[in-house]
Amino acid sequence: MKFTEHRDSNVYAVKRYESGEVKINDQVVNQSCFLNQKELVREWSCNHISKLEERHLDQLMSLNPEVIILGTGEQQVFPEPRLFAHCARKGIGLEVMNNVAACRTYNVLTTEDREVVLALIMEPEND
Description:
Number of helices: 3
Helix content: 10-25%
CATH superfamily: MTH938-like
CATH architecture: 3-Layer(aba) Sandwich
Number of strands: 8
CATH topology: Hypothetical Protein Mth938, Chain: A
Radius of gyration: 13 Å
Order of helices and strands: EEEEEHEHEHE
C-alpha cells in the first residue's frame, strides 16, 4: 500500500508498505524495525509476536513515546496481557494492529506532532 503524503524530509514517515517490506522516507527495510519522527532503527530483534518480551518494549520506550503502535505482521495478533501492563505501568499506551494499519496510524499521529513509536514485526521468509 502506497502512502502519498508529502512531509518534511527531516521527519521519518512511511511512504509505502508491502508484505515484508516498508519504505521509510527513501530507505527500504525488509526486517523488523522501529522508528519515531527523528530516529529509525532498521534492525529490531523481535521477528514474531510470540517472541515479544519486555526488553523489546523497553527499546521502544527509550524513545519516550506517548504511545507505541505495534504492527504484528499481515494479521493483527495480540501479545500477552502482561506486556500491555508493562507499558501501562510506564504510562505509555500500546496499540496493536496489522502492519498496514500500523503504518497508516503512525503517519496520521505524526502529522499531529504526537510522540509515537512505530514498531513493525516482519517475520523472516521460510526457507
